[in-house]
Amino acid sequence: MTPQITKIALLSVIALSSIHSARAQAPAPDGSRTFEGTWSATGQRQALPTEANRPAAVIYLSGAVVLTGATGLSSGFRGEAIGFDDGRALNAGRAVWTDARGDQVFSELKGEPLQTGKRIFGTITGGTGRYARATGDYELTWQYIVAPEDGTVQGRASDLHGRFRLSEAGR
Prior knowledge:
Elements: H1 3-25, E1 33-48, E2 56-68, E3 76-85, E4 91-98, E5 104-111, E6 119-127, E7 134-146, E8 152-166
Antiparallel strand pairs: 1-2, 1-8, 2-3, 3-4, 4-5, 5-6, 6-7, 7-8
């Protein structure tokens, strides 16, 4: 290829990707936008034995939430979550994501036991500052969890994706 054809091809690719990116960022008719990302976290787990041979546990995790594709949400948050697993079927929790300005996004968590490959579902229930009146939902898959005898837990969520909406009053 000649240098001129290479430049034209490169400019075409850049122009097309810009158009695609602008379309991906446009809100849906209901005003919601999509996002995806990862969440790496460490924390503590406390467990009690149960009759089901699977311990009930309380867990606290905190770490970095990194999002892409979300106009209206920061790309980085400190994510904190606290959850309860009853050793059978009840798995519930709460999470808060805090951005660099101190604005927060709150969510309720439900899902499968906190183990490798399990799905967790979040419902965004509001926030503070620019995230006041935020709504939406997300889900993620835990890639791995390490829980040594001292109760320390390390995990990474992948396939984090969801939708959120900021009402006019929340902007």
